[in-house]
Q: What sequence folds into this?
């Protein structure tokens, strides 16, 4: 039986994306988020325009979308409740956020140069997507929420995630993304079945 509820927000969660961007002074900012969806070579990011990440993307017109695996949960957790915005926006301060200038240092993660954008990649993440801004869409005006449309221009993937027979494809049995499920961290379980869609978009994993 279903029941009617009135949730505070409609948040169900997706894979975690660790966004690296450049601050105005040229230093790097890191921000984990999980309101993202993907379509072809584009990604839509749901964020607050008050965040440092959004301000950086608007100014620089680019960022790197780093996809962490489940083993990076401790590093992502160290970034929780930190912001690169100074002073801290009132809405975040009320929820316990504090300013941190050195996000890479606090997280223990390592910056790597990107090839097409100025923002750094995150070495420990198995997938790096260099992306450029297409458009910012307002959401639920007059709230600060925005949907940021990014176009992915370069994809870096750890070699051990690729299919042996088809090196241009990621093996879904090897990829262990970090999932944010109702604000809690989860990973993927074992494969349950083969999908009829898989042959349409690439080779089926042999595992």
A:
């Amino acid at each position: 039986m279903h029941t009617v509820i009135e949730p505070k927000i409609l948040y169900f969660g997706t894979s975690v994306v660790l966004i690296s961007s450049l601050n105005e002074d040229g230093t790097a900012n890191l921000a984990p988020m999980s309101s993202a969806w993907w379509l072809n070579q584009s990604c839509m990011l749901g964020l607050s325009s008050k965040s440092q990440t959004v301000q950086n993307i608007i100014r620089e017109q680019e960022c790197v979308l780093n996809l962490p695996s489940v083993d990076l949960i401790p590093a992502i957790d160290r970034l929780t409740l930190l912001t690169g915005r100074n002073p801290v926006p009132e809405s975040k301060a009320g929820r316990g956020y504090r300013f941190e200038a050195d996000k890479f240092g606090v997280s223990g993660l390592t910056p790597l140069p990107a090839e097409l954008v100025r923002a750094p990649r995150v070495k420990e993440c198995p997938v790096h997507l260099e992306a450029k801004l297409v458009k910012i869409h307002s959401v639920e005006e007059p709230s600060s929420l925005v949907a940021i449309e990014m176009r992915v221009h370069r994809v870096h993937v750890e070699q051990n995630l690729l299919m042996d027979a088809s090196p241009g494809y990621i093996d879904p049995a090897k990829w262990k993304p970090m999932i944010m499920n109702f604000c809690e961290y989860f990973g993927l379980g074992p494969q349950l079945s083969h999908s009829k869609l898989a042959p349409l978009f690439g080779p089926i994993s042999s595992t």
Observations:
- Residues 77 and 107 are 8 Å apart (CA to CA).
- The helical segments are 52-60, 73-79, 90-93, 103-107, 198-201.
